[in-house]
Amino acid sequence: MDTSDELLLDIQHLHTAFRVHDHFYDAVDDISLTLHKNEILALVGESGSGKSTLATSIIGLHNPRNTKVTGDIMYNELNLVGLNEALFNRIRGNDIGMIFQDPLSALNPLMRIGEQIAESLVYHTKLNEKEREARVLQLLEQVGIPDPPLTAHQYPHELSGGMRQRVMIAIAIACKPPIIIADEPTTALDVTIQAQILDLLEDIQKEIGSGILLITHDLGVVAETADTVAVMYSGQIVEQGSVYQVFEHPLHPYTRSLLRSMPQADSDDEELHVIQGTVPSLVNMQRTGDRFAPRIPWMPASSHEEHPVLHEVEPGHLVRCTCYKTFYFPDEKEAAAAGAPQNANEGE
Amino acid sequence: MWKTILRRVILMIPQIIILSLFIFLLAKMMPGDPFTGLITPNTSPSQIAKLRQEAGLNNPWYVQYVSWVGRAFHGDFGMSYAMQRPVTEIIGERAVNTLYLAILSVIITYVIAIPFGVWAGRYEGTWIDTSIQFYNFISMSTPSFVVYLLAIAAFGFGLKWFPTSGSVSVSASGFFGIIASRIYHIILPSILIGILTNASTVQYLRSGIVDNKLEDYVKTARSKGVPERVVFNRHILRNSLLPIAAFFGNVITGLLGGAIFAETIFSYPGMGKLFIDSVNGRDYSVMTALVLLYGILTLLGNLLSDIIMSIVDPRIRID
Amino acid sequence: MSLIEIKDLNIHYPIRSGFFNRITDYVYAVDGINFDIEEGETYGLIGESGSGKSTTGKAIVGLEKVTSGQILYNGQDVTNRHERKKIKYNKDVQMIFQDSMSSLNPRKRIEDIIAEPIRNFESMTDTEERDRVKELLDIVGMPSDSIYKYPHEFSGGQRQRIGVARAVATHPKLIVADEPVSALDLSVQAQVLNFMKQIQKEFNISYLFISHDLGVVKHMCRNLAIMHRGRLVEVGTREDIYNNPQHIYTKRLLAAIPKVNPSGREADKAHRREVEREFQDHQDKWYDKDGKVFPLQQITATHSVALPPDEVTQIKSEVG
């Protein structure tokens, strides 16, 4: 990504709260993010981190009866927060395309593939039926479907998982939207198919120059595809930066813990790192202080900020709370105390 | 698909044989026989015995069964002892009456069930849904004959809006006159059957809509910028109507059963009333023929459901 | 003698069609595979969806009817149900499923879920049984008051641990773990994997670890087999498979794993595309004329690969 690229989305102080027993709880808690043209921004986090909620807020698909969205999501001078439905329907599909996790359930089982792709063309273009058909075939070709006329007449259950996700991508890019939101686009797929779909997403992006918001829990996928990364925990961004900054110099204890718990080790005797405790539920979430503090109880209270904010440690690289400065893993300290070389030092 | 339908029809043959055997034996086990009712102080036991002998009732049961099946195969279910007419002829007349009643009942069932199901599903959790659910609860738990009797008392004898018996008025004349009179006679029972038997259809449709509303493909449709009205009609409603269409065959057989009560209480000369009369009159030949017919209709209804399902749902193909 | 020996295992499903519903063809879900699991080891079975890996696992615990071939347990044939019953095989071999929500009965309390296998195979008094359940919960690191709760009251990771507790309740010798951590978040996955290793050491349990995730398998297994189209394409030690893959399918799987190293990603991608091109363009070299995987050929003491014999000779000469 080139920072001079056009700004597509400017999210400022976004809060998305869900109603649970007549109380509203923030699932997305004061998030500010930007997405530029040609950028792949990855939102990483475990279930319950609020990453999917953020995506749904952007595209305005929350049920207004039990959800409250506040803050600003600026798209071309237009604030998507509180936008009326009629106007939003002109944005959805046309300016923002969405790809879901499970392509089987995300496609209508009773509609032919061609019809499902053409649907968004009906509402956003002036193409007549003939032209729409031609465009559908062109899109299927673009996403690498071997026999577009055949597939256009098929139903979702007649396609393989990988083919279905290609169809989902064709739907998302039908109107060449400047913004694409991909919510766990490869989680339901086999690893070889995952690689193909990620390659396809990158190719498509190069062709139409969209900004992609990639939501995933898979750190490998992020490292392979993203330009920028935001790591989320308990509704907040805890670390943000370029993919190189975050993966090569991870600073926040959560980012470091996640990377450490990946099964990458070469020796089978080595235990995987386990993050203590569990991800708090929406209702039980701690709302003050460092939300990750209970998961790293060995760190003294003094290492945390009272109201943790994002600190810019180098241009573009942001970390929440000051505890990262003194953070260590308990076994590192033992190793250090035993006089062993401290090789897990961050920042190299 | 034709092959599968043919195969299914062929597979029905053993089912029908077992059914017929069961019916036959059940009828044999009932106390009394057609002549029991004819016994008066004036009939001598020897006369009765002679009649029994002539009717073949003294043969072993399997001989009787084989001859019954053999004749039934040619459409001959024997004579009705009570009416002294061929059973096939009687059932033929009555079946037409029941057909009219069933058609109008089905229409009324769906005219009520579809909007109710759609509203209940669409406005799930609101007072509309609650009211419809309440209505469903009442209609399912109320014994139908009570409603029929009350309706006859109120609208037939009380207000005199509707006739209280028969299928056509003797004074009706001319083609349209007769049609009008027929419809006039079935309108009250049809409405009542329609009101009382649509609960399952309403519930199917409602739960279909409630489930489909949460499906991912509905989210996909919204994410394409499809207006909410279209999302509902094209995606949610269309997909929820599918099981309803497939349920059609079962609704038909359900109605045939439901019509037994209605016809009896409204003294409507259909198959249902004929059935009850034949049971009361120990009219074996009529009764066994009717039970067999109901059985075959149920099997056909299930087959019809499967065929409809395979037509409307692309995921199910029978070939 | 190995704990489990799989000998020429075949599981075929008939495809019926035509007017009389005659069997016209078969799906070769598992098509003649052989492997052994040693006592106390974790054997990895890797494949993508539809490869037949789960069918193999189910056959070993007796949930799938074997078409032909043998499963030997301590040298005894346990392929059919009567033989399994005779030697209490079902007590010794347990299974952990991927989806802990659907594999635990939602209407039963944890106590009954964990006690079920104990009740099937052992006679215990109620207090003994309850103590045993509490002990098992303690082993998997769950509080003992969990016994009164229902599955939905737990998180995915906790439910998976309950699944493990149930599996170890009868002191099994082998646990077939079918994608045990695929549905879990990274940090929870680490917990479950560590814990599986811990009880393995404690009770000398063998695992058949079925997974599509090569990272997890690498961490867990010393010996593994790659399955594709119902057959094994490559079998070897962890080092054989990860450092010296021979079959294109193995290479393709390995190339497809996303690596946590953004600097190398362009090179990784180029490598992946190259492997993919080789896979697409030279199907005839790697698969026989029916598209089936070749029989396995041994290239070193530990390493076998499914290739035509002439290819193998060439590889052997290269390996030395």
From TrEMBL, chain A:
Domain of life, source organism: Bacteria
The keyword Membrane belongs to this UniProt entry's keyword annotation: yes
GO MF entries: ATP binding; hydrolase activity
Residue spans crossing the bilayer: none
Residue span(s) of domain ABC transporter: 9-259
Protein's cellular compartments: Cell membrane
Membrane topology (UniProt): Peripheral membrane protein
CDD domains: ABC_NikE_OppD_transporters
Keyword annotations of the record: ATP-binding, Cell membrane, Hydrolase, Membrane, Nucleotide-binding, Transport
Family: Belongs to the ABC transporter superfamily.
Protein name listed in UniProt: ABC transporter ATP-binding protein
Native source species: Schleiferilactobacillus harbinensis
Automatic annotation (TrEMBL), chain B:
Cell compartment(s), UniProt: Cell membrane
Bilayer disposition of the protein: Multi-pass membrane protein
CDD domains linked: TM_PBP2
Domain ABC transmembrane type-1 stretches: 95-305
One annotated GO biological process: transmembrane transport
Keywords of this entry: Cell membrane, Membrane, Transmembrane, Transmembrane helix, Transport
GO cellular-component term (any): plasma membrane
Major subcellular location class: membrane
UniProt xrefs under InterPro entries: BPD_transp_1_N, MetI-like, MetI-like_sf
Pfam families xrefs: BPD_transp_1 (PF00528), BPD_transp_1_N (PF19300)
Bilayer-spanning residue ranges: 9-27, 99-120, 132-155, 175-196, 241-266, 286-312
Record flagged with keyword Endoplasmic reticulum: no
Similarity section: Belongs to the binding-protein-dependent transport system permease family.
Name listed for the protein in its UniProt record: Oligopeptide transport protein
Source organism phylogeny: Bacteria, Bacillati, Bacillota, Bacilli, Lactobacillales
TrEMBL record, chain C:
Gene Ontology BP terms: peptide transport; protein transport; transmembrane transport
GO cellular component: plasma membrane
Membrane protein topology class: Peripheral membrane protein
Family: Belongs to the ABC transporter superfamily.
Pfam families: ABC_tran (PF00005), oligo_HPY (PF08352)
InterPro entries tied to this protein: AAA+_ATPase, ABC_transp_ATP-bind, ABC_transporter-like_ATP-bd, ABC_transporter-like_CS, Oligopep_ABC_C, P-loop_NTPase
Species this chain originates from: Schleiferilactobacillus harbinensis DSM 16991
Protein's cellular compartments: Cell membrane
Keyword line: ATP-binding, Nucleotide-binding, Peptide transport, Protein transport, Transport
Protein name, as recorded: Peptide ABC transporter ATP-binding protein
GO terms for MF: ATP binding; ATP hydrolysis activity
Domain ABC transporter: from-to ranges: 6-254
Lineage, uppermost ranks: Bacteria, Bacillati, Bacillota, Bacilli, Lactobacillales
Domain of life assignment: Bacteria
Cited CDD domains: ABC_NikE_OppD_transporters
